[in-house]
Amino acid sequence: MESVDLKAIALLYAKANELNDFIAYGSVAAAIQTVDGNVFTGVSIDTACSMGFCAEHAAVAEMLKHGESKIKRVVAVTEDGNAVPPCGRCRELMTQLAQENQAAIVEVDNNVYVSLGSLMPYDWKKATNRKW
Q1: Can you say how many angstroms the Cα of residue 49 is from the centroid of all Cα atoms in its chain?
Q2: Per-residue pLDDT at 130 exceeds 60
Q3: What is the pTM of this model?
Q4: Pairing between β-strand 71-78 and β-strand 23-34 as defined by DSSP bridges
């Protein structure tokens, strides 16, 4: 699977919806391809009191539910099809899942790809030698 295919899958779910006066969802959708070739998706949830979460977190949860943790590629898109980079919280989550995820390819802007590790220039786990 190519990155463009993964982006097309994510775009299927990027549809902004308002659930009620307090919750909107789907303004961003993410797709993660694992090293085993499976694809997991998620959508963002935005709440009035900031308790929501990112599309990447939702996709990670789905991936973990199926017993996988190693990422090959990841993309998040808005409903207009533009790629958006993962926030710091999502970057940290994905790198903590497996050391190999540092090599995962991330589309950070339309047709701009970098490794997840390059988005984490100073990894606190290395600095503290912690093993969780």
Answers
A1: 22
A2: no
A3: 0.89
A4: antiparallel
